[in-house]
Amino acid sequence: MISMPEAIAETPLDNSESEADDGVPTDCPVLTEHEMVSVLQHWEADGKERLHEPVLGQINMERAIETGREGLSFLGDHLTIPEEMLDFSSTNAYLCQNQTNPNEQFLAPVYSYWAVSFANEYLNVNMTVNAVMGQIWKAEILARQVMGEGSQVLLRMDQANVSKTMAAFMSSVGINPDGTGEVFVSYGIVSASMDILNDSLLIYSDVKVVSKAAFDSEFMVASQSFSGGKASAVINAVGNYADEGLWEISKFKMYLSASE
């Protein structure tokens, strides 16, 4: 679950008349893929989250949370999630920019993002919403425990639908795949002693290397490049292959990245 960064004391930016009554900017720009890559590179750079209030052209908290709920609906369309698990007891959101050095001033509003999270006893869901575009550029869903008695599976994914999910995700943020649009899929294993939340584990691997370590989970990584290979849309899942193309998963992540 996304942890709240320490707030930085400073004068809030002026956000007078920044939004329409429904919290949606009245003049939302269309970013080129090159501009999207620039934003992603800044998000992924080493730095510290710097909180601020919405400014001209940025969506407000209510709209960010509503966008997150729309993201939950998207996930529900592409994963098998028991409906009762989507009743969340906790909802949080904060707006920030990544500050890469102490003297850095706020960049253009499009470099900000809303970190939106939902949680209950079964799931943690984290989403990163571009504060100007109002689009989900990163989404993660983590199953915390099995539901009820026994070993009931929380989440399922049909492997045959990965390309369809990728296409829907890229379409939702207005990007086109490079070349033929082929989705590259790789598989690997995760040691029982490893932390599955560590993204560095989700590396590309077509060969399962078995050693003395105990392995109890597999992962799948699907990627589709865009902007001439400068960035990618990525889907990864951690879990176990069941049968008939179904994956029983404990973690699902879907995101744009300029570092893949």
User: How many helical elements?
Assistant: 3
**Can you give the helix content as a percent range?**
10-25%
How many discrete domains?
1
Provide the low-confidence segments as ranges. 1-21, 192-215
Largest sheet: 10 strands, antiparallel
Strand % is: 25-35%
Give the overall shape: globular
Structural class: alpha+beta
Concise description?
The protein has three helices and ten strands. With 260 residues, the chain is of the alpha+beta class. Strands 1, 2, 3, 4, 5, 6, 7, 8, 9 and 10 form a ten-stranded antiparallel β-sheet that branches.
What does this structure look like?
The chain is an alpha+beta fold and 260 residues long. Helices cover 16% and strands 32% of the residues. Strands 1, 2, 3, 4, 5, 6, 7, 8, 9 and 10 form a 10-stranded antiparallel beta sheet that branches. The chain is globular, with a radius of gyration of 19 Å. It has one domain. A hairpin with a 5-residue loop joins strand 4 (123-130) and strand 5 (136-143).
Architecture blueprint of SSEs:
Elements: H1 33-44, E1 48-51, H2 61-78, E2 90-99, E3 113-119, E4 123-130, E5 136-143, E6 155-158, H3 162-172, E7 184-191, E8 215-226, E9 231-241, E10 246-257
